[in-house]
Amino acid sequence: MTWGVGLATFGIAPRALAGAQMEEPLAYVVRSALSAAISDSAPPKPAFDNMDQRLAYLRWLGAMSEKLKRRQAEHITRIDFLEAVWYESKRKGLEPSLVLGLIQVESGFRKYAVSSAGARGYMQVMPFWARLIGDGDASRLFHMQTNLRFGCVILRHYLNVEQGDLFLALGRYNGSRGRAEYPNLVFGARRQWEFKPA
Questions:
Q1: pLDDT tens for each residue of 130-168
Q2: Domains (ranges, CATH) in the chain?
Q3: What is the CA radius of gyration of the chain?
Q4: Cα–Cα distances in Å, from 19 out to 4, 29, 30, 105?
Q5: How much is the pTM?
Q6: DSSP letter string over 20-88?
Q7: Is 96 strand, coil or helix?
């Protein structure tokens, strides 16, 4: 995965500072669990226990839609995207602000972004993941929900591997484990997407 697009957001000339995410052998049980996590085809529609939760979600959706407007002008597309980000991040125990920050750095919110290493879509998922835990069709990584689901499942996997260390997990996601540039960019971008209710 590369992150030149994200660098431009911070006024830095885009260039590759790290290598591509590496394919690593997965134990059968891990591979099976990851495959199951991406196979659920439920639409990204949230369920809430009470009205307060629903209202908080709707306030988040409105605030994020306003922030995303200059990057995605079409209202319906923007809302569909944000609903999917919220749903996929929450189902894997990730904060939507983190996922939005990662997307900003990885693809600049471009659905059809392809890196020099071959990573695809919003979350710049490497094609080998389609073979390892998907149906083998890497072209599906350009489908919005599929890309977001793969990206969130992979990031959660790396968080588990790194025992909750987000800095190392982000480095692993990018293929630059142990280096500060990429995690710091994502942390900076995440701050722009944090929701502070009025």
A1: 999 999 999 999 999 999 999 999 999 999 999 999 999
A2: 4-11+43-192 (1.10.530)
A3: 16
A4: 12, 28, 24, 15
A5: 0.85
A6: PPPP----HHHHHHHHHHHH----S----SSHHHHHHHHHHHHHHHHHHTTT---HHHHHHHHHHHHHH
A7: helix
